[in-house]
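Researcher: Predict the fold of Serine/threonine protein kinase.
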Amino acid sequence: TIPVEVVESATAEETTNVQPTPITPQPAPVQFQLSPDFPPQLAHKYTGVELIGKGGFARVYKAKRKDGSVVAVKIPLSLDENTGRAFLREITNWLHLKHPNIVRLYDANILPIPYLEMEYCESSLEKLSKPLSIESAAYIIFNVAEGLKYAHSKGIVHRDLKPSNILLKAGVPKVSDWGLSKVLSESRYTTLASFTPYYAAPEQVSRRFGKPDHRSDIWQLGVVFYELVTGRLPFERDDLIEVVSSITTEEPVPPSELNPEAKEVEHIILTCLQKDMEDRYQSMSEFQFELATYLGLKYREGLKQSITLNNTQRAAFYAGKLMLVFLKMGNLKEAYKYASDLKVYAKGELSREVALLSEQIKIRLEEGLSAPEELVERAEVIVHKISLGFKSI
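Model: Structure tokens for Serine/threonine protein kinase follow.
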């Protein structure tokens, strides 16, 4: 990349009036800060470009737009003519997905080169140290299921869920890379390095299990859940053929044998990992309800213990989590109950934010209305602020 430097020239007439001036340090010429391998065709759109990831399909950069907002820019490594068309067709679905648990896609095009501009998230499930606590893992999966439930209601299935495309922004999990698996499957440049078989459902690797559908996402989310609570994959083998064989013919080691604490959610995980699609949860709503039941029980226990110990910060954490779970499940009566509890435990400016949120939940409850996404997002921000002061989970 060539640094841009503006140099002004003076006419002869102008130079006659130039007076000597003291020598002072001059600021360095303004330059566009670009990663050396960032495509020059996009250089005019961004500054402060930094390579933050590279996989079999694409490079990912953190960049700043002209309006000052920070975004992620994904550049596919190679697309032929056929997959270029598929790229636009599939990505169009992602552009219309607007949900707190789905990474926002701001822009996508194949000109001047194929690229995606999306919401920047600072981390991913892949980067987390595993195993996680069972509560933390269940809460992450609950929120991912929330985003997938929304997508499925639009008739959109992900097909390629794995820790590297479940991103984290301020602690909130967000699903990324919608439609890219189909684009990748149509590319003649696809290699084994681009393909992740460990999370594939039986019906994705063998036709005898039927045609993949929304329940394939349930399987894949079950694999991610298994990995979060055990630190291992349920079908990890030495080569691709062995992986496919184990997915289609073998049963996974029960999670509790690898982590005894996982016993509480073992039935949920193993239901997701049933090879026959009819034996799995039949919808994300059904899967999410099981998670909500578990989380509700654990958070109520935590809240009760916190009150007994007179630990208001801990009580605020659990009351906030309960409020969020019930808000996302559409149970405004219970959400309002725990929002009211949270008002008691929250302090300072946070207390005022909770009071306003609680009042808005109450109004919607009385009018028989559902909670809009903006309300849920506001609740998410409040709970995240509380979580920052509560690190012991």
